[in-house]
Design brief:
The structure holds two protein chains of two kinds. Chain A is mostly beta strands. Chain A is built from no helices and eleven strands. In chain A, strands 2, 4, 5, 9, 10 and 11 form a six-stranded mixed beta sheet that branches. In chain A, strands 1-3-8-7-6 form a five-stranded antiparallel beta sheet, with no helix packed on it. Chain A is globular and about 45 Å long. Chain A starts with a strand and ends with a strand. Chain B is 0% helix and 57% strand. In chain B, the strands form two sheets. In chain B, strands 2, 4, 5, 6, 9, 10 and 11 form a seven-stranded mixed beta sheet that branches. Chain B has a four-stranded antiparallel beta sheet with strand order 1-3-8-7, with no helix packed on it. The chains are: A mainly beta, B mainly beta.
């Protein structure tokens, strides 16, 4: 069954604002990864957070992980029109290399 | 150089036909995958190969047959195509180390009429 569930399904913001997307999952994980998919393109890895980490930063991206609540959030600060894309969380289960993806959040950044 | 390349990018065909999608990666990775993305953007794993050997075979009709001639290539052959097979098919390879980061191709959009 599907592991990750992103929330919201769609998000529309003005350029310069921050965008927050959430992901919930069901079982124990080794790590959680976020990917971006531009329209008509493949998925691109953005950032990974391990199960023993609580927060991670990469440029304008900030990821948090709460294993007690089985949830993660992705924050994109100072959004740009080029950030318009779908964002997916993917979980790697403990003892497995298989990644299971959520349905994604479609982010629209209006110039 | 494209790391993971798929061909064709678009494929339009009639029900009942047989078609293949090819995938090649030049990253030197041992593990490759096929994912199917439906119209609602849900991405579901279909198959995984490690060094030419099948290691994951999710519940996929046996009309779908992966073939890996070497660890850099993973092709997907589909027999007797059905309307429900219409989707975008993504090939991916897994990076080294224990993180499991995936590198995706650009996708092959299959439309069955």
């Amino acid at each position: 069954s599907q592991q990750g569930e992103e929330d919201p399904q769609a998000l529309s913001i003005q350029e310069g604002e921050n965008a927050t997307m959430n992901c919930s999952y069901k079982t124990s994980i080794n790590n959680l990864q976020w990917y971006r998919q531009n329209s008509g393109r493949g998925l691109v890895h953005l950032i990974l957070i391990r199960s023993n980490e609580r927060e991670k930063h990469s440029g304008r991206l900030r990821v948090t992980l709460d294993t007690s609540k089985k949830s993660s959030s992705l924050l994109i600060t100072a959004s740009r029109a080029a950030d318009t894309a779908s964002y997916f969380c993917a979980t790697r289960g403990a003892g497995s290399y298989q990644l299971t993806f959520g349905k994604g959040t479609k982010l629209s950044v209006i110039p | 150089d494209t790391a993971v390349s798929q061909t064709p990018k678009y494929l339009v065909t009639q029900m009942g036909n047989d078609k293949s999608i090819k995938c090649e990666q030049n990253l030197g990775h041992d593990t490759m995958y096929w994912y199917k993305q439906d119209s609602k953007k849900f991405l579901k794993i279909m198959f995984s190969y490690n060094n030419k050997e099948l290691i994951i075979n999710e519940t996929v009709p046996n009309r779908f047959s992966p073939k890996s001639p070497d660890k850099a290539h993973l092709n997907l052959h589909i027999n007797s195509l059905e309307l429900g097979d219409s989707a975008v098919y993504f090939c991916a390879s897994r990076g080294e180390g224990d993180t499991g980061e995936l590198f995706f191709g650009e996708g092959s959009r299959l439309t069955v009429l």
